[in-house]
Amino acid sequence: MLKDEHSAAVVDDLGLGAPKPAVPPNEPGTQLITAEQFILQQRMARFPTTSGEFSWLLSGITLATKMVAAQVRRAGLTSLLGSAGEINVQGETVQRLDVFANQALLHCLGNRGNVGVLASEENEQPVIALQDPEGGKYIVVFDPLDGSSNIDVNVNVGTIFSIMRRDMSNTSDPGADVLQQGTRQIAAGYVVYGSSTMLVYTTGDGVHGFTLDPAIGAYVLSHPNMQMPDRGNLYSTNEANADSYPEYCRRFLHWLKSGEDGTAYSSRYIGSLVADFHRTLLKGGIFLYPPTSQYPKGKLRLLYEANPIAMLAEQAGGRASDGQNRILDIEPTDLHQRVPLFVGSRYEMDRLEEFARRMKMR
Ligand code: AHG
Ligand code: MN
Ligand code: MN
To answer: Is there a single domain that holds both residue 144 and residue 16?
Structure first.
């Protein structure tokens, strides 16, 4: 093949040539659609007068998480492994990469202009980023680095984010607007830093996955309209805590392992919520972090772990509850409040809640 024909074929492969009819994104000749472009197209379709503000906000998240991904990929070569020598508001040892990721998100979102309040797992109080009192209509709540205990052993970690609107009439205490029910989220998502780096988000119009293409430094649409299977054959929980789970959970796990319903379940547990959920989203099954003796209210945080994960699960056809209540219906009382989290396919979630009802949450 002549050189220029070859290069023309490469340009075509990347979909950079003349527009082609839309084809499934992992076929040769695929249209290359970036996350920012996709969200702009989605918003234009639903809100024709959209100002592109949301795409601009999302570009703050994509930029920050690309910075984190670059550090995660070379963590062993830089001084970013190990503890930062601090204890955070959660009473947990802060890893250097927690600090880096937190700073990256605060910086990249703080200068968007349309983000008025930022709340992070790593900051005791929300950060007010109002450059103009009339501006900053969005709130972003985030877990900058999820699965910190896995950083030093080169296991998947992630970033989780939740986006809400600010009450623009509340100019006295914008930080208080953070405490909104999960149903009020206008978008939610995560980035999983795994064998590839993937951004998965929803704006209430399905769940879409974008893989970071290091060759061009862009998140490219790779998994449009992600649907969680109606049932699976995997369950995910930290079995070391199982003896202290409520009785209905122990009975449910015993039933799951018995194979009574004809399914031989396997156990998978990575210890990073983002990675354990990402697998559940793709393969189905159920993830459980029930109340334990160490965390009687559950370990995971409502606002920047459970709520965004719950919105994604429901948008993909799954369910998320605290064993009794739909996660998205819980009224928050504190930025860092913890909840039990059960999330997964409809079938397994229905079975779990049957046990909870039968055992009256014992
Ligand atoms: P983070 O690193 O943001 O504190 O989150 C860790 C969480 C979550 O990622 C994971 O599901 C859970 O901790 C694992 O807890 P255990 O180690 O107690 O199983
Ligand atoms: Mn976390
Ligand atoms: Mn974290």
So the answer is: yes
Q: Tell me which of 245, 305, 338, 341 to substitute to probe ligand 1's pocket, judged by most ligand atoms within 8 Å of the beta carbon.
A: 305
Ligand 1 centre distance from Cα of residue 150 (Å): 9
- For residue 346, tell me if it sits in a domain: yes
Residues 83 and 62 in one domain: yes
Span 164-193, pLDDT tens digits: 999 888 878 888 899 999 999 999 999 999
The 3-state DSSP class for residue 328 equals helix
Backbone angles phi, psi at 56, to 5 degrees: -65, -40
Instruction: Say if residue 246 is in the same domain as residue 186.
Output: no
- The residues near 115 (Cβ < 8 Å, ≥ 6 apart) are 57, 60, 109, 129, 136, 138, 139, 140
Q: Give the structural domain span for 182.
A: 5-223
Residue 233: CB atoms within 10 A of its CB come to 14
Q: Specify the range with the lowest mean pLDDT, choosing from 24-33, 80-89, 115-124, 178-187.
A: 24-33
- pLDDT score, position 339: 98
**Contact residues of ligand 1, CB 6 A cut-off:** 92, 121, 143, 146-149, 238, 271-273, 276, 299
- The answer to whether the CB of 208 falls within 8 A of the CB of 201 is yes
Among 164, 189, 223, which residue terminates a domain?
223
In a domain, 349, yes or no: yes
Same domain membership, residue 269 and residue 216: no
**Is the predicted pLDDT of residue 19 greater than 50, yes or no?**
no
Question: What pTM did the predictor assign?
Answer: 0.89
For position 40, what pLDDT does the model report?
84
